[in-house]
Amino acid sequence: MKQESRPSPQLDRDAWIQAAFDSLADHGVDGLRVEVLAKRCGVTKGSFYWHFRNRQDLLSAVLENWKDGRIRDILKQTRAEPGEELSCIRHVIEVYSASRNRKGMLIELAVRDWARRDATAAQIVRKVDSIRLDCAGRLFRACGIAPEEARSRSLLLYAYVFGISLMSVERNDPLMAGQRQTISDLIAGAKVS
Amino acid sequence: MKQESRPSPQLDRDAWIQAAFDSLADHGVDGLRVEVLAKRCGVTKGSFYWHFRNRQDLLSAVLENWKDGRIRDILKQTRAEPGEELSCIRHVIEVYSASRNRKGMLIELAVRDWARRDATAAQIVRKVDSIRLDCAGRLFRACGIAPEEARSRSLLLYAYVFGISLMSVERNDPLMAGQRQTISDLIAGAKVS
DNA sequence: GAATTACCATACGTATGCGTATGGTGCCCA
DNA sequence: TGGGCACCATACGCATACGTATGGTAATTC
């Protein structure tokens, strides 16, 4: 009988994948090395090659896992009650651009870096982006914004949240809080001044 | 007498740095290896270690070179005649978000990826960001925008242009042209609809 | 309780990459 | 014209990392 509640002392495939996400966030794809990962897991690579055919096998699994998680997350975060679409948009902006959820953003950036040099990763990023833009666009249209502009604002929204993570600004600065609010207003389409 | 017009058949320090930028754009910092670089230059690493103490020496030089180039570029691009500030802003947005200048953006992204794991790189990126925000803020204020909002719009501007480069959208799509225009309007503060 | 299975360690060969040491070659200049 | 210098090649030792082969162990199964 399988014990699912208590984490097994043995490593399974998913445990390796989760550890891979940690390494991905900290060191990027290039820093994701199986022997290093094994050391971090307290085992040797003999274990790794039991669960995975090779390094690429792990990378593919990481990508698929990331894709599924992102899609699930998007659908969850953009599900808004009628009339709550605007606050939903603001919430999405806030969740992504805040300094919390830092690890998730580091993974996001690592995957996008990955996608610049790997066709498979690029394809998955395109897919995730496509869904994100669709979901956000739906929210904007529900706010009464024309389809064309809704798509533009969606693009601006995600470009902003990813871009702001690339910039070395102090995101915990209380002075930044007001600026983030202003930017959120600009993207969401509210009045600023 | 030094020949400056004709490129020397010998490699000098700057030639190595330029080649390093190519490698940086294509493979990131982690892919910037001295033996690989030497092969690309048609020489062996014996040449490299003549011009540089070690790999870190090259990386530091690349960083400094990037910083100087960026600062020079910012000052040049944000120098606007009185009354031309708005078009100057739009021009900055267009230059960065367009698919041309692709190599420059790849280097930009590589350096920012680098900065996430290296304190020196992070410091230089902060410096460049600071100057960029100051220069853009000056343009916005010249357009009659309040200092607070000017800073927010500057932040949005650069976050957008870097973020859009992270997204795998078809930037050559003629459909995208209209959206980029709409976004440019939103950032610059023009009317959209 | 013997055999099978799941999981992991160890050892090996190969490749890549760093940094050093040393040797070679063409050019400049006294 | 011969020594010195700038520039580069070659060879070495070392470290890391991939993938494979094989051996070990604990738990499960029959």
Explain the overall architecture:
The structure is a homodimer of 193-residue chains. Chain A is mainly alpha-helical and 193 residues long. Chain A has helices at 13-27, 34-41, 45-51, 55-77, 85-97, 102-115, 119-142, 147-166, 174-188. The longest helix of chain A is centred in the C-terminal third of the chain and has 24 residues, at 119-142. Residues 1-7 of chain A have low confidence and may be disordered. Chains A and B meet through helix 6, helix 7, helix 8 and helix 9 of A and helix 6, helix 7, helix 8 and helix 9 of B. The structure holds a DNA duplex (30 and 30 nucleotides).
Provide a quick synopsis of the model.
Chain A has 193 residues and is mainly α. Chain A has one domain: Orthogonal Bundle (Tetracycline Repressor, domain 2). At the A-B interface, helix 6, helix 7, helix 8 and helix 9 of A face helix 6, helix 7, helix 8 and helix 9 of B.
